[in-house]
Design brief:
With 114 residues, the protein is mainly alpha-helical. The chain is built from 5 helices and no strands. Helix 1 runs parallel beside helix 2, helix 2 packs across helix 4 and helix 4 crosses helix 5.
């Protein structure tokens, strides 16, 4: 009896991966093994960089808060230390947004902690 393989499912799986790498350069878009490797590596980068993005944004927020705090004669560490001492519970993301788009509100926070 001949060996039975599920060619329909195999072909569908290959088509799905080839569709996802459509638009890539060279053999990555049409050669199955190269495309599969490119797709898997892309998924690894995507997974890793979803976490890296959070780190990068936190760093950006800290830089923005530091720049705004220095305009009012404080360093970032002094500013954050004073905020925690006064029990002002506000995230770095919000502080950075205030520093960028609403300097008056940021100045009010600085005045409250001084």
């Amino acid at each position: 009896m001949p060996r039975s393989v599920n060619a329909v499912a195999s072909r569908a799986k290959r088509k799905k991966v080839l569709k996802k790498v459509k638009g890539q350069f060279g053999r990555r878009k049409n050669v199955w093994t190269v495309a599969k490797n490119a797709y898997e590596k892309g998924q690894q980068y995507a997974y890793r960089d979803r976490r890296t993005k959070k780190r990068n944004f936190r760093g950006l927020w800290i830089q923005r808060i530091n720049a705004a705090a220095r305009l009012h004669g404080m360093s970032y560490s002094e500013f954050m230390g004073a905020i925690h001492k006064k029990n002002i519970d506000i995230s770095r993301k919000t502080l950075a947004d205030l520093a960028m788009h609403n300097p008056e509100a940021f100045k009010a926070i600085v005045d409250a902690i001084k």
